[in-house]
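Quick one, tokens below. Sequence please?
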């Protein structure tokens, strides 16, 4: 995808209107994928930079939970905050466990993550 060097924007228009405007490369990719935006060819006399997305991580690669802060007294947090934290740790919704409330599942996820960190284990917590 070509980005105009002077502005750092990608020229696009909507499917409903042919008025050309510029958006960030990330917005252009999302809009083109969703079908809301159409990429406009950049004239040859305009200096551009080629923009490529980084390759996504492979599904089977272990994911390190980085930057998720677990408060020291997490067990005293409001139940909704615990559920939110557990979802962040897993990177997905909490699994449904028969006979357990969401907060109890969240407690287990957080407790396991705290133990994993204390043990220095760097395996994927979602597995």
């Amino acid at each position: 995808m070509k980005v105009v060097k002077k502005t750092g924007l990608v020229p696009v228009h909507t499917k409903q209107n042919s008025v050309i405007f510029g958006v960030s490369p990330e917005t252009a990719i999302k809009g083109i994928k969703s079908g809301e935006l159409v990429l406009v060819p950049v004239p040859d006399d305009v200096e551009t930079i080629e923009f490529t997305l980084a390759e996504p991580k492979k599904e089977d690669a272990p994911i390190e939970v980085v930057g998720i802060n677990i408060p020291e007294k997490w067990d005293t947090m409001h139940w909704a905050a615990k559920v939110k934290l557990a979802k962040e740790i897993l990177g997905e919704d909490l699994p449904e466990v028969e006979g357990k409330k969401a907060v109890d599942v969240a407690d287990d996820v957080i407790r396991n993550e705290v133990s994993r960190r204390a043990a220095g284990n760097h395996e994927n917590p979602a597995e």
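DSSP finds three helices and five strands in the chain. The chain has two domains: 2-50, 56-127.
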